[in-house]
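FIELD: query
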Amino acid sequence: MRKRSGVLISLLCACALAGCMSAGNETIADATGASVASQLIKGKTTQADVRRLYGDPIKTSFSANGFETWEYEFTRLQSKPTNFIPYVNLVHSGAEGDKKALVVFFDKQKVVHDFTMSTSRINVSQGLITR
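FIELD: result
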C-alpha cells in the first residue's frame, strides 16, 4: 500500500510539471510596466540599448512618419487539471495563463519615443464544452 501511494504521488507531480509551457522572449517574462520604465528612457534609450536589454524583437514595423516599432511577446500557460482525467478531458480540456507584450516606438533617430507594456489573461479551451 505504501508503495502505491508513492507511485501515485510521483505520477501527480509528473503531471503537474508536464502541464506548464512558456513561449516567447524570456527577458520580459517577469517584466512590469515599472521595471520597463526604469530601463527605457524616452528620448535617451537607443535601439542598440533595447536590443541589448531584450534581444531581437518578434516583429518590426514602420509607420508613414518614419517611426519604427519593435514588438516583444512572452506567454506562460498551464494545463487545466481536467487534461489529466481520462474521458473528462474529451469533454473539457485546455490551458490558461498570461501573455505579456512590450511594444517600443522609435523616432527617426532610432531613439525610444514611447513604449507600452501589457499583460492579458489567456484561456484556451477544447472539447465538447468550451466556455
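FIELD: remark
The domain at 19-126 is CATH 3.30.1450 (Beta-lactamase Inhibitory Protein; Chain:B, domain 1).
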